[in-house]
Amino acid sequence: MFDIISIVCGSKTIDYKLYPENCFESVYDGSNTTVAKKISDVLPGAVNVVSTVDPKTGNKIVSMRVPPNNVQNKVIYCYCDYRDTASQPKSISTNDIKSLGVVKIVVPVMPTHINGCDFKKEESEIFTKGVDISSLDYNEVNDIVCKVEAEPNEVIGFRCPDDYEVSPPDCFVNAYNLEGKMEYIKKRIPLNSLIMDNHKKIFYSKVPTHGYGKPSFFCMCVKDNKKLIVHFNLALATPPSYWSNYTGRFFMKSNSGYYGKTASILIVVFFIVSYFML
Protein backbone atom coordinates (compact mmCIF):
# COMPACT_ATOMS: atom_id res chain seq x y z
CA MET A 1 0.00 0.00 0.00
CA PHE A 2 1.22 3.47 -1.01
CA ASP A 3 4.23 2.08 -2.86
CA ILE A 4 5.49 4.35 -5.62
CA ILE A 5 5.40 2.79 -9.08
CA SER A 6 7.08 4.37 -12.11
CA ILE A 7 7.25 3.81 -15.85
CA VAL A 8 10.22 4.97 -17.93
CA CYS A 9 9.43 5.37 -21.62
CA GLY A 10 11.79 7.04 -24.10
CA SER A 11 14.86 9.21 -23.69
CA LYS A 12 16.71 12.14 -25.29
CA THR A 13 17.59 10.06 -28.31
CA ILE A 14 14.58 7.72 -28.45
CA ASP A 15 11.18 9.34 -28.84
CA TYR A 16 8.92 6.56 -27.58
CA LYS A 17 5.24 7.30 -27.25
CA LEU A 18 3.29 6.46 -24.09
CA TYR A 19 -0.30 5.22 -24.19
CA PRO A 20 -2.41 6.68 -22.77
CA GLU A 21 -0.45 9.90 -23.16
CA ASN A 22 -1.42 10.85 -19.61
CA CYS A 23 -0.67 7.40 -18.19
CA PHE A 24 -1.66 7.01 -14.51
CA GLU A 25 -4.13 9.87 -14.85
CA SER A 26 -5.82 7.51 -17.30
CA VAL A 27 -5.17 3.78 -17.73
CA TYR A 28 -6.39 0.72 -19.58
CA ASP A 29 -8.17 -1.84 -17.42
CA GLY A 30 -7.81 -4.82 -19.77
CA SER A 31 -5.05 -6.45 -21.79
CA ASN A 32 -6.95 -5.88 -25.05
CA THR A 33 -8.56 -2.59 -24.12
CA THR A 34 -7.80 0.49 -26.20
CA VAL A 35 -10.21 2.91 -24.52
CA ALA A 36 -8.62 4.56 -21.51
CA LYS A 37 -10.43 5.24 -18.25
CA LYS A 38 -9.75 7.75 -15.49
CA ILE A 39 -7.59 6.31 -12.73
CA SER A 40 -10.18 7.50 -10.19
CA ASP A 41 -12.77 5.22 -11.83
CA VAL A 42 -10.49 2.19 -11.99
CA LEU A 43 -8.40 2.60 -8.85
CA PRO A 44 -10.03 5.08 -6.42
CA GLY A 45 -7.58 6.63 -4.00
CA ALA A 46 -4.56 6.74 -6.31
CA VAL A 47 -2.49 9.83 -5.50
CA ASN A 48 0.64 11.78 -6.39
CA VAL A 49 0.44 11.17 -10.13
CA VAL A 50 3.52 12.87 -11.57
CA SER A 51 5.01 13.15 -15.05
CA THR A 52 8.65 14.24 -15.28
CA VAL A 53 11.72 14.12 -17.51
CA ASP A 54 15.06 13.07 -16.04
CA PRO A 55 17.40 16.01 -16.85
CA LYS A 56 20.42 13.72 -17.14
CA THR A 57 19.09 10.89 -19.28
CA GLY A 58 16.06 12.52 -20.84
CA ASN A 59 13.96 9.55 -19.77
CA LYS A 60 10.27 10.26 -19.61
CA ILE A 61 8.98 9.07 -16.24
CA VAL A 62 5.44 8.80 -14.94
CA SER A 63 4.73 7.68 -11.39
CA MET A 64 2.01 7.39 -8.79
CA ARG A 65 1.36 6.01 -5.31
CA VAL A 66 -0.63 2.79 -5.22
CA PRO A 67 -3.77 3.24 -3.09
CA PRO A 68 -5.51 0.76 -0.80
CA ASN A 69 -7.76 -1.65 -2.69
CA ASN A 70 -10.31 -3.90 -0.98
CA VAL A 71 -12.66 -4.87 -3.80
CA GLN A 72 -10.68 -7.36 -5.89
CA ASN A 73 -7.28 -7.68 -7.50
CA LYS A 74 -7.12 -4.69 -9.82
CA VAL A 75 -5.03 -4.82 -13.00
CA ILE A 76 -4.11 -1.70 -14.95
CA TYR A 77 -2.07 -1.24 -18.13
CA CYS A 78 -0.05 1.40 -19.94
CA TYR A 79 1.91 0.87 -23.19
CA CYS A 80 5.23 2.17 -24.43
CA ASP A 81 5.33 2.37 -28.25
CA TYR A 82 8.91 1.82 -29.41
CA ARG A 83 8.09 1.64 -33.12
CA ASP A 84 9.29 4.17 -35.67
CA THR A 85 7.74 7.50 -34.67
CA ALA A 86 6.83 8.28 -38.28
CA SER A 87 4.47 5.31 -38.34
CA GLN A 88 2.91 5.92 -34.94
CA PRO A 89 -0.82 6.56 -35.05
CA LYS A 90 -2.51 8.91 -32.62
CA SER A 91 -4.35 5.99 -31.09
CA ILE A 92 -3.77 2.26 -30.83
CA SER A 93 -5.80 -0.73 -31.87
CA THR A 94 -6.00 -4.23 -30.42
CA ASN A 95 -3.60 -5.46 -33.11
CA ASP A 96 -1.03 -2.84 -32.12
CA ILE A 97 -0.76 -4.07 -28.54
CA LYS A 98 1.40 -7.10 -29.40
CA SER A 99 4.03 -4.71 -30.86
CA LEU A 100 4.20 -2.48 -27.81
CA GLY A 101 6.01 -2.58 -24.50
CA VAL A 102 3.31 -3.57 -22.04
CA VAL A 103 3.33 -2.38 -18.43
CA LYS A 104 0.98 -4.53 -16.37
CA ILE A 105 0.38 -3.53 -12.75
CA VAL A 106 -1.53 -5.78 -10.38
CA VAL A 107 -2.86 -4.15 -7.20
CA PRO A 108 -3.73 -6.85 -4.64
CA VAL A 109 -6.64 -6.73 -2.26
CA MET A 110 -6.20 -5.08 1.14
CA PRO A 111 -8.86 -6.55 3.44
CA THR A 112 -9.58 -3.47 5.55
CA HIS A 113 -10.56 0.12 4.84
CA ILE A 114 -8.45 3.04 6.02
CA ASN A 115 -9.77 4.73 9.15
CA GLY A 116 -11.10 8.00 7.81
CA CYS A 117 -13.85 9.97 6.09
CA ASP A 118 -14.92 10.07 2.47
CA PHE A 119 -17.01 13.13 1.65
CA LYS A 120 -17.17 12.11 -1.98
CA LYS A 121 -18.99 8.79 -1.66
CA GLU A 122 -21.24 7.24 0.98
CA GLU A 123 -20.13 3.67 0.21
CA SER A 124 -16.41 4.42 0.19
CA GLU A 125 -13.97 1.98 -1.40
CA ILE A 126 -11.15 3.55 0.61
CA PHE A 127 -12.29 4.81 4.00
CA THR A 128 -14.29 3.40 6.91
CA LYS A 129 -16.84 6.22 6.77
CA GLY A 130 -18.60 7.80 3.81
CA VAL A 131 -20.90 10.80 3.67
CA ASP A 132 -23.37 11.58 0.89
CA ILE A 133 -23.35 15.37 1.08
CA SER A 134 -26.02 15.57 -1.64
CA SER A 135 -28.48 13.77 0.65
CA LEU A 136 -31.62 15.68 1.65
CA ASP A 137 -30.48 15.30 5.26
CA TYR A 138 -27.67 17.79 4.60
CA ASN A 139 -29.49 20.31 2.38
CA GLU A 140 -29.77 22.93 5.10
CA VAL A 141 -26.63 21.95 6.98
CA ASN A 142 -23.54 24.09 6.45
CA ASP A 143 -21.21 22.21 8.77
CA ILE A 144 -21.05 18.42 8.32
CA VAL A 145 -18.82 16.67 10.86
CA CYS A 146 -17.23 13.23 10.49
CA LYS A 147 -15.34 11.95 13.55
CA VAL A 148 -12.41 9.53 13.46
CA GLU A 149 -11.09 7.69 16.53
CA ALA A 150 -7.64 6.26 15.82
CA GLU A 151 -5.00 4.17 17.56
CA PRO A 152 -1.17 4.39 17.36
CA ASN A 153 0.37 3.18 14.08
CA GLU A 154 -3.01 3.26 12.37
CA VAL A 155 -3.33 4.82 8.91
CA ILE A 156 -5.88 7.64 8.76
CA GLY A 157 -7.12 9.93 6.02
CA PHE A 158 -9.94 11.70 4.22
CA ARG A 159 -11.16 12.66 0.76
CA CYS A 160 -12.90 15.86 -0.32
CA PRO A 161 -15.25 16.33 -3.28
CA ASP A 162 -13.54 17.55 -6.46
CA ASP A 163 -15.08 21.03 -6.29
CA TYR A 164 -14.08 21.65 -2.66
CA GLU A 165 -10.80 23.00 -1.31
CA VAL A 166 -8.82 21.42 1.52
CA SER A 167 -8.26 23.68 4.53
CA PRO A 168 -5.54 23.97 5.57
CA PRO A 169 -4.03 22.82 2.27
CA ASP A 170 -1.22 21.00 4.15
CA CYS A 171 -3.44 19.15 6.61
CA PHE A 172 -1.50 16.78 8.90
CA VAL A 173 1.31 19.34 8.96
CA ASN A 174 -0.92 22.25 9.94
CA ALA A 175 -4.46 21.77 11.26
CA TYR A 176 -7.14 23.40 13.40
CA ASN A 177 -7.11 22.83 17.15
CA LEU A 178 -10.31 22.49 19.17
CA GLU A 179 -10.40 26.26 19.63
CA GLY A 180 -10.66 26.64 15.86
CA LYS A 181 -7.18 28.13 15.51
CA MET A 182 -4.73 26.88 12.92
CA GLU A 183 -1.47 25.56 14.33
CA TYR A 184 1.60 23.59 13.33
CA ILE A 185 0.17 20.28 14.45
CA LYS A 186 3.36 18.24 13.98
CA LYS A 187 4.88 20.07 16.93
CA ARG A 188 2.64 18.15 19.35
CA ILE A 189 1.42 15.26 17.16
CA PRO A 190 4.32 14.02 15.00
CA LEU A 191 2.24 12.42 12.26
CA ASN A 192 4.35 10.51 9.77
CA SER A 193 4.15 8.85 6.34
CA LEU A 194 2.37 11.93 5.04
CA ILE A 195 0.71 11.68 1.64
CA MET A 196 -1.02 14.88 0.52
CA ASP A 197 -2.62 15.36 -2.87
CA ASN A 198 -4.48 18.64 -3.31
CA HIS A 199 -5.17 17.82 -6.95
CA LYS A 200 -7.17 14.70 -6.11
CA LYS A 201 -8.19 16.04 -2.67
CA ILE A 202 -6.99 12.91 -0.85
CA PHE A 203 -4.85 12.96 2.29
CA TYR A 204 -3.29 10.07 4.23
CA SER A 205 -1.10 9.83 7.32
CA LYS A 206 0.01 7.42 10.04
CA VAL A 207 -0.71 7.91 13.73
CA PRO A 208 2.39 8.10 15.97
CA THR A 209 2.65 6.31 19.31
CA HIS A 210 3.23 9.44 21.39
CA GLY A 211 2.11 13.04 21.36
CA TYR A 212 1.93 16.19 23.49
CA GLY A 213 -1.13 18.05 24.72
CA LYS A 214 -4.62 17.26 23.45
CA PRO A 215 -4.36 14.67 20.65
CA SER A 216 -7.29 16.09 18.69
CA PHE A 217 -7.52 18.31 15.61
CA PHE A 218 -9.58 18.83 12.50
CA CYS A 219 -9.29 19.75 8.85
CA MET A 220 -12.00 20.79 6.40
CA CYS A 221 -13.25 20.59 2.85
CA VAL A 222 -14.59 24.05 2.04
CA LYS A 223 -16.86 25.43 -0.67
CA ASP A 224 -18.55 28.81 -0.22
CA ASN A 225 -20.31 28.56 3.17
CA LYS A 226 -20.27 24.76 3.25
CA LYS A 227 -17.74 23.03 5.52
CA LEU A 228 -17.11 19.30 5.59
CA ILE A 229 -15.17 18.74 8.80
CA VAL A 230 -13.07 15.66 9.57
CA HIS A 231 -12.31 15.54 13.29
CA PHE A 232 -9.47 13.28 14.41
CA ASN A 233 -9.14 12.08 17.99
CA LEU A 234 -5.97 10.05 18.53
CA ALA A 235 -5.28 7.70 21.42
CA LEU A 236 -1.70 8.76 22.15
CA ALA A 237 0.53 8.33 25.17
CA THR A 238 2.65 11.16 26.56
CA PRO A 239 6.36 10.55 25.88
CA PRO A 240 8.13 9.58 29.13
CA SER A 241 10.89 11.96 30.19
CA TYR A 242 14.16 10.91 31.78
CA TRP A 243 13.26 12.67 35.00
CA SER A 244 9.84 11.01 35.29
CA ASN A 245 11.48 7.62 34.79
CA TYR A 246 14.11 8.38 37.42
CA THR A 247 11.77 9.76 40.07
CA GLY A 248 9.26 7.01 39.37
CA ARG A 249 11.64 4.62 41.12
CA PHE A 250 11.35 6.54 44.41
CA PHE A 251 7.89 8.10 44.38
CA MET A 252 4.60 6.24 44.64
CA LYS A 253 1.35 7.78 43.48
CA SER A 254 -0.95 8.54 46.40
CA ASN A 255 -3.79 10.87 47.39
CA SER A 256 -1.48 12.28 50.06
CA GLY A 257 2.10 13.51 49.86
CA TYR A 258 3.33 11.05 52.47
CA TYR A 259 5.17 8.65 50.16
CA GLY A 260 6.84 11.48 48.32
CA LYS A 261 8.03 13.16 51.50
CA THR A 262 9.28 9.90 52.97
CA ALA A 263 11.26 9.07 49.86
CA SER A 264 12.81 12.55 49.89
CA ILE A 265 13.92 12.16 53.52
CA LEU A 266 15.44 8.76 52.84
CA ILE A 267 17.43 10.13 49.89
CA VAL A 268 18.76 13.04 52.00
CA VAL A 269 19.73 10.69 54.85
CA PHE A 270 21.46 8.36 52.37
CA PHE A 271 23.67 11.17 51.07
CA ILE A 272 24.48 12.44 54.60
CA VAL A 273 25.50 8.97 55.84
CA SER A 274 27.54 8.35 52.67
CA TYR A 275 29.39 11.64 53.17
CA PHE A 276 30.48 10.88 56.76
CA MET A 277 31.58 7.37 55.87
CA LEU A 278 34.15 8.70 53.38
Short synopsis of the structure:
By secondary structure, this protein is mostly beta strands. It has helices at residues 39-42, 242-247, 258-277, and strands spanning 4-8, 17-19, 26-27, 37-38, 47-53, 60-65, 74-81, 101-107, 114-118, 127-130, 143-150, 155-159, 165-167, 174-176, 182-184, 192-197, 202-206, 216-223, 226-234.
Characterise this structure.
The protein has helices spanning 39-42, 242-247, 258-277; strands at residues 4-8, 17-19, 26-27, 37-38, 47-53, 60-65, 74-81, 101-107, 114-118, 127-130, 143-150, 155-159, 165-167, 174-176, 182-184, 192-197, 202-206, 216-223, 226-234. By secondary structure, the chain is mainly β. It folds into three domains: 4-107, Immunoglobulin-like, CATH 2.60.40.1320; 114-234, Sandwich (Immunoglobulin-like); 242-277. The longest helix has 20 residues, at 258-277. It starts with a strand and ends with a helix. Mean pLDDT is 80; it is low at 242-278.
Structural descriptors:
278 residues, mainly beta, Immunoglobulin-like, 5-stranded mixed sheet, 3 helices, 19 strands, 36% strand
Q: Uncertain regions: pLDDT < 50 for 5+ in a row?
A: 242-278
Task: Give me the Rg, rounded.
Answer: 27 Å
Q: What fold name goes in the CATH topology slot of the largest domain?
A: Immunoglobulin-like
First and last CA, distance: 64 Å
How much helix is in the residues?
10-25%
What percent strand?
A: 35-45%
How many helices does DSSP assign? Answer: 3
H and E order: EEEEHEEEEEEEEEEEEEEEHH
Characterize the largest beta sheet: strand count, sense, and whether it forms a barrel. 5 strands, mixed
Report the structural category: mainly beta
User: Could you give the count of β-strands?
Assistant: 19
Mean pLDDT: 80
Q: Which CATH architecture of the largest domain?
A: Sandwich
Shape: elongated
Largest beta sheet: strand ordering:
10-9-12-17-16
CATH hierarchy class name of the largest domain: Mainly Beta
User: What is the number of independent domains?
Assistant: 3
Transmembrane segments: 258-277
InterPro entries: 6_CYS_dom, 6_CYS_dom_sf, Parasite_Repro/Invasion_Surf
Pfam family, one: s48_45
Protein name: 6-cysteine protein
